[in-house]
């Protein structure tokens, strides 16, 4: 009855076609790209087409004390767009207009639903592009990239999304519209643009995003080197950086991935390759020529089995083909996988990868690795089969072991997927209660009633005195793998 | 509170040698306000204890690095205690293979660079007075210089941070790895917050390798339009400049004198540096040179080695057009790159109308314009109001085009007559709420940040 009334009100705001309340249709919104951990449908999905409608919807949620969460393309990998406590999902895909492109100043203003790649496509004839390039860039939205501070292979040189966001229009949980940052670089006041970026939809809804565009480099060079052991490839990564070269990307794949790719795409990686390193340089032609030579020498010195250099765009695409298909290829060797996301200092890569292998052996799992080696950003794919009793639980436990490993060498439990729902119970491993309390102050300043994407990013305490959100045990907690602080 | 009594209590935390009281506090004056006591904590624990004392007694605290940028910010509403961080000056960690390093806040930037240079690396910061600035001060003010064109500012380079809060609690944000999205990006909140949310204790940075070689090209233009066109072409070409500075004729003349070059009267200068492997640097300088010639450069110079070092030092440390005995107003406008030349022109015209000498230096690719207005001491005392009006006039121009204008330093009489920060927009109440949550009693740098925060 109550829901009926709210749905009617939402019809009045966005139109009948843009409200989803039917339980069957809502199943589409049960999860994001983190499909196996948790599934909860929202009560209602609403698809506004402009900022004013977002404001009206948020004000309605405020009045009715309904939790809500913004959602882009749903490509997130940490369950950040799962409606933990029911409520309203505000889907922003219809807000997909590029509002302004100012090439003279290398800026653009876009709505949050603009697909990452679409922005680059809109400016590429003028030799510009939008630098953040998450693997999902053909589907993920800029608003989602902002919410997750998305990374990607090329953020080694160009920084993650936060480096490329200059300003935001945000609808707060109260329904108030606020402007953060601007089109110029140094805006007086606290850096709310930087604070909001990566806040995983917990501080409000971005309804306009001012981004920085970049000029395409004069030249690009892509190299693929194969090594017998992943240790050697990891050493090569550190040595390249220590030489003073910052490639635009340095991506690594291990023997499991190589095997799966060979079986599928027949790429022709050399016999006995235990690791493949994909290195891309961009910049002035003379510079990358010189750097490529240095890199080749480093690879040869470390006994590369094979070294290929792309001669044209077509060959470049070929070298990237394996990397881009890597995660999909793992589907050929396992029923399911749990894609972890941890970061370690580059120099610890050989040691950490050995320990990841040991975790795999101890748990009798295959753990395949494809990752952003230049950043030390690991993506272990823990292969499991949930049809077998207890395997999902063991896979999650292995993931937890990897997170602890990353922290033990001074790393982070997530480099680009975020905390979301997946890691909410693991964030206390990285931050003390005082650290988390400081973050909670931020959240309460923006959203004192915790209406925005509740139950994400920061653990709610069991007492929940100030939060108004029902305490709800996480799956890992129910299964005895972790405990709430 | 009585200065001596406060100093005694502080001495119990930091030791008697590390406290100043009464007249000895005068060098730590901010906008004519003298602190009651000055403390120099020696480690994180001592700083935390000092904050606990301040918090329990409701004392306001001014965090202090080298003091070079203490002129930034509104006139403080209260000054009880200055907390100087120069004893927190350690390199905590540097891992060359990871290109990361962690420093305590009070370490001078020059010590940081000297140490990193030994590994062929550096922290790409070159704010004004960079031979004296401390890391913490650079972060708290998000100060930057010409190198931001290629490398960004502290905001882009801090990956981890430790902070002492108003109540003495120590917390951290970020990590010692170049990529992390675990929780809110607290680094961004503290960088540029002028110590109003907490005192930065230490920070971890992404470093950069030193380029193999670096060369600088200077082109002089008789008319502003030529420089504007050359600038636009360079910004949209594939050359990767480390620094792009546009110097007004006043600035060019003064800097030319400092580095021993005679720049003709009335010419604006474009100074560009390129770093990297020698063959690439040569090719890019050649491209830049061609753009400048085609757009009518009147004269050009290639500078290298020590002349280049002293040139960039003069640009970074540019502060005085004339010399001693005069007061100065330093303004920073942040505008769109296409609006840089107009901003310089408008700023200089205004200064002329006010009877002030002026010079302008601009990180043109980033849209940052620094204006230096210099006048006789008597004038400031007599007529701060008309200068304040002039600043407001310039600010109106800048804000109308989507930018902002901040007073970096000015005599207190001028600061009393015009808002140092200018309008912040409709997020001010949110900023106030953040301040309230982090520093409920308003002890940290009260009154000096935007909107009187």
Automatic annotation (TrEMBL), chain A:
Domain FAD-binding PCMH-type: 38-216
A GO molecular-function descriptor: FAD binding
PROSITE patterns, per database record: FAD_PCMH
Region forming the signal peptide: none
UniProt keyword terms in alphabetical order: FAD, Flavoprotein, Oxidoreductase
InterPro entries: FAD-bd_oxidored_4_C, FAD-bd_PCMH, FAD-bd_PCMH-like_sf, FAD-bd_PCMH_sub1, FAD-bd_PCMH_sub2, FAD-linked_Oxase-like_C, FAD-linked_OxidoTrans_Type4, Oxid_FAD_bind_N
Cofactor: FAD
Protein name per UniProt: FAD-binding protein
Automatic annotation (TrEMBL), chain B:
Needed co-factor(s): FAD
Single annotated GO MF: oxidoreductase activity
Cited Pfam families: FAD-oxidase_C (PF02913), FAD_binding_4 (PF01565)
InterPro entries assigned: FAD-bd_oxidored_4_C (IPR004113), FAD-bd_PCMH (IPR016166), FAD-bd_PCMH-like_sf (IPR036318), FAD-bd_PCMH_sub2 (IPR016169), FAD-linked_Oxase-like_C (IPR016164), Oxid_FAD_bind_N (IPR006094), Vanillyl_alc_oxidase_C-sub2 (IPR016171)
Keywords: FAD, Flavoprotein, Oxidoreductase
Residue ranges of every copy of the FAD-binding PCMH-type domain listed in the record: 31-210
Keyword Flavoprotein: yes
Domain of life (superkingdom): Bacteria
Name of the protein in its database record: FAD-binding oxidoreductase
Organism: Candidatus Methylomirabilis tolerans
